C-alpha cells in the first residue's frame, strides 16, 4: 500500500504538466506551402489550410480550405505573419508539398528550405515541385475534383513518380544532391492550365548547383531519363513513332511497357575530355500496336531495331538538354571524384560538363505482345 | 539480499550483454558525425583501426583480471597499490565514473530537448532518467544482468531500422578512399576509441562471472565484436546515405536519416528510434551508476547497496544541474571526461598490471 501511494505520488508529480503537448485542436495544419519571389526581393509565402468542423452525432463534416498569402524576409517571418491571420497557430509538421515559384527557384533554394531541415518537427518526407509561373496561383486553384489542393498536388506528384516520370525524391533525399559538388537533380514541374481548369505535371526542371536552370525536359522525355538513371517507378510506358505515313496517324505509333531494364554507365575521364557510355537494355511488352502481325520474328526484329533507333536519338536529345542546363543529374562529376580523384582535382567541372561526350545506346527487346498477336 | 542470491555468479551470456549494453549508449547518435569531422568519408577506417587497438587493450585488461580471479577491480587496486594508495585511486575512479554518468545525463537530456521536447525543462528530463537508473541499480548485479539481457532484444529493432535505410544509400559517397591523407584517419581513431569507452566494465565485474579465464576472454572479444559490427553498420549506412558535404551539416545523422521515412502506422520513425535508444541510454547510465556505487562501497567498506546507489544517483542529478543545457560548459566538460577516459580505462589499468607483474615476481622470490 505504501509503495502504491508512492507510485501515485510520483506519477502525479511527473506526469501532469506537460510542456510539450501539441493538441490538434489548437493548431492548423498547413498541408501545402508555396513560395514566390516578391517584387522587392522579399519572399511571398502561400499556404493552404483546411479547417474541419462539424462531425459528431452523425452530423455533416464540413471542410473549408483557406488559402492565405503574405510576404516576409524569411520563411519563418512569413509564417509568423500568417499566424496572425489564423484563428489558431500554424503548424507545418504534416506538410505534404512544397511548391516553389519559377522565379524564386532560379535563386539559391537552400535558404528557403533551411527551416524545414533545421526544425525537428517538420516533415521531410514532403514533395518539392516547381510551378511554372507563380506558386500562389497553383495553390489558389479550385476544382480538379479533389476537395483539397494539397491532395490533388500530392496525387499528381505521386502518380508521376509511379509512372517513372520523376524520381519521387522527398526533401531529405534532395538535400544530399543540393549540397554536394558534381551532383544535381531534377524537380517536377507543375503547370496551372487556366483554360481547361486543371493542374498538370509538365516535365522535369533541371537543377544546376543550387538553383533551377530554367531548362526543362518534357513529360514525354522523362520516363527515358528515369530509366537511364535507374529510377523506374511502378510502371514505365513509352509511346514512340516507328512507322511513317500509314493510312491513319495512329498506326505510326507503338506503345510499350518496360518489364525489365538494365543500365550500365561507364565513365572514361581524362583531363582533356570526358566520355560517358550509357547502355540501357530494355525488355518490353507491347501494349498497343494496331498493326497486329506480331508473330513473325522478322516483324519483331524490325520493331526492335526501329525502337532502338528512336530511343537512342531521343536519349541523345535528352543529354544535350541536360548539358544546356548544366545539370549533372547522373552525378558524373561526383563519380569522377569518387573513382578518379586525381583527374577530378584538375577539372573545372562547371566548364567541363557541357563538353562531356555522351554516347547512349538503348537496346530494346520485345518479350511479350499482350493476348493478341 | 539473501545469501544464495548474493553468491550467484553471472553467466557468460549475461556478461556478454552487460558489456554490450554498457557500450552502446548515448554516443551512437553522434558517432558517425564525430568520425566524419575527424576523417571525412574515411571515418569507417578509423573505426576499424580503433577496434583493432581496442582488442589489444582488452587482452591486457583481461591479463590483469585473470591474475586476481576472486577480486573485483577496486579490490585489485587495494591489493596491488597497497591499501591507502588503492583507496585514493578508487576515489578517483568513483569521480570518473560519476563524471561519465553526469555526461550521459547531460547529453541525453540535450538530445531529447533538441529532437522531441523543446519546451520541457532540463531537470524533468534528467530526473526521469536518473530515477529509472537508480531503480535498476538498487537490485543485485544478477538482476541488472537479467534486465540487460532482456533489453538486448531491442537491439534488433535498432539494427533493422538502420538497415532499412540501406535502400537509399549510395556507395559512391565513401569514395575516394583516403583522399585527405592518413592524418585525418589517425585523428578519427581517437573518436573511435572514445565510442568504445564503456569497456572498463569488463574489468570491473570480471570476478563476478563464472567460467574459465579463456572462456571469459572469448566472451569479452565477442561482445566487443558485436558492438563494433553495430557501430560499423551505423557508420557505413549514414556515410552512404548522406553525401560527404551533407554529413557536416547533421550532427545526429542516424535520426536525421530515419526522419525522411514514413511507414503506414509510424509517421515519424526517428521518434520511434529515440524511444528505443532511451533504453540503451538508461542501461549505460545504470552501468556507470553501478560502478560508481561499487567503488564507493569498496572505499568505505559497506554492504549498504541501496543507500549508496541512492546517494550517488542524487549526486549525478544535482551535479548535472550545474551544467544543464549550457553548451559551452557541456563541451568543456565533455572534453575533460572523454580524455580522462584514456587515463582511467587504459593508463591506470596498464600501470596496475605492470606493478602487479613486479609484485608477483617479488612474492615468488620471497616464497622460494
SSE series of chain A? HEEEEHEEHHEHHHEEEHEEEHHHHE
Low-confidence stretches of chain B: 364-368
Q: Identify the strand order in the major beta sheet of chain A.
A: 4-3-2-6-7-8-9-10
What is the percent of helical residues of chain A?
25-40%
Q: From the coordinates shown, what is the CATH architecture of chain B?
A: Up-down Bundle
Please describe the biggest sheet of chain A, giving its number of strands, its sense, and whether it closes into a barrel: 8 strands, mixed
**Span of the ends, CA to CA of chain A:** 83 Å
Q: Report the sheet-strand fraction of chain A.
A: 25-35%
Query: Structural class per helix/strand content of chain B?
Result: mainly alpha
Number of domains of chain B: 1
Number of helices of chain A: 12
Strand-and-helix sequence of chain B, N→C? HHHHHHHHHHHHHHHHH
- Strand element count of chain A: 14
Overall morphology of chain B = globular
Domain Spore germination GerAC-like C-terminal (chain A): 202-370
Keywords (chain A): Germination, Lipoprotein, Membrane, Palmitate, Signal
Family (chain A): Belongs to the GerABKC lipoprotein family.
Membrane topology (chain A): Lipid-anchor
Structure description:
Chain B: It is a multi-pass membrane protein. Chain B: This is Germination protein KB. Chain B: It is found in: Membrane. The complex is a heterodimer of chains A (373) and B (368). With 373 residues, chain A is α/β, with parallel strands linked by helices. Chain A has helices spanning 2-15, 75-85, 102-105, 110-118, 135-139, 149-162, 171-179, 222-229, 297-324, 332-339, 341-346, 349-352, and strands spanning 27-29, 32-37, 43-54, 61-72, 89-91, 97-101, 127-132, 186-193, 198-208, 211-217, 237-241, 253-269, 274-288, 357-368. Chain A has 2 domains: 27-219; 220-373, Nutrient germinant receptor protein C, domain 3 (GMP Synthetase, Chain A, domain 3), CATH 3.30.300. In chain A, strands 4-3-2-6-7-8-9-10 form an 8-stranded mixed β-sheet. A 4-stranded mixed β-sheet of chain A has the order 11-12-13-14, with helices on both faces. In chain A, strands 1-5 form a two-stranded parallel ribbon. Chain A starts with a helix and ends in a 5-residue tail after the last strand. Chain B has one domain (8-367): Amino acid/polyamine transporter I, CATH 1.20.1740. Chain B is 76% helix and 0% strand. In chain B, helix 4 runs parallel beside helix 17. The interface between A and B is medium-sized, with 28 and 33 residues.
